[in-house]
Design goal:
With 230 residues, the chain is mostly beta strands. It is built from no helices and 13 strands. A hairpin with a 2-residue loop joins strand 6 and strand 7.
Length: 230
């Protein structure tokens, strides 16, 4: 799952450090909007043995591929592919941050910790020739992240352009739905997923204790642990 998040942040410097010189600690809040997840080529993989190896073909009684119809990016709108799939959607992104920065010449080095909530949903559906549909949906609930940033001041010294990258861990809510009314399906529930955020930003310090910034983050969360057994 890849998440793109433009956001605006309000920061308050704390402590007795020279905030106007970008050295010291701070706390901040942020709010933004998420772009839709990257949905290119999503599929459902099968382990028919089960031996832990996914990629098996599910065959009908006539030895034909039961999922030869198609897969689609999103939640199935009908039992057949002609009904299409509902597009994945994303909403808001907001949270709190705390960090420390150090100024060396006109370079600024920093580390921050953040906790965020988001409304990001990603689904994939498989259509069977039998002909039920099967939809797997995942939603990112919250994320903890640690990031570093490095940037350069410019202009009057109160502007900072920077790049940032780090480590993130998200709580992922998983869900399964199907039009198949005969078999019983069990799943392994919600999961935690690791990933990385990286991006760029610009921050403007208006006083010794207040700044306003904008930031664009690209986050990749690798969630590969969800299983559904028939």
């Amino acid at each position: 799952m890849r998440i793109h998040s433009p956001a605006a942040a309000l920061s308050l410097a704390c402590g007795s450090a020279a905030a106007q010189e970008w050295t010291g600690g701070y706390v901040s809040s942020y709010a933004g909007a998420l772009m839709d997840p990257d949905d290119s080529g999503d599929t459902v993989q099968f382990d028919t043995n089960p031996d832990g190896g996914f990629g098996d073909c599910v065959n009908t009684a006539a030895s034909a591929n039961a999922f030869s119809l198609s897969f689609c990016d999103g939640a199935a709108g009908d039992r057949m592919p002609a009904g299409g799939c509902r597009e994945n959607g994303s909403g808001g992104d907001y949270g709190i941050r705390g960090g420390d920065d150090w100024l060396s010449g006109n370079l600024v080095f920093g580390v921050l910790r953040e906790y965020g909530m988001a409304d990001c949903r990603d689904a994939v559906s498989a259509f069977s020739t039998t002909p039920p549909f099967y939809t797997l949906l995942r939603k990112v609930d919250d994320t903890l992240a640690v990031r570093g940033r490095i940037g350069m001041t410019f202009g009057d010294g109160n502007n900072l352009a920077y790049g940032t990258a780090g480590y993130a861990r998200s709580t992922v809510e998983n869900d399964f739905s199907t039009s198949h009314a005969v078999n019983t399906f069990v799943n392994n529930g919600d999961s935690d997923a690791d990933g990385y955020p990286l991006g760029v930003g610009n921050e403007r310090r208006s006083t010794d204790s207040f700044s306003l910034g904008v930031e664009y983050l690209h986050s990749r969360i690798d969630d590969e642990d969800y299983r559904v057994r028939a």
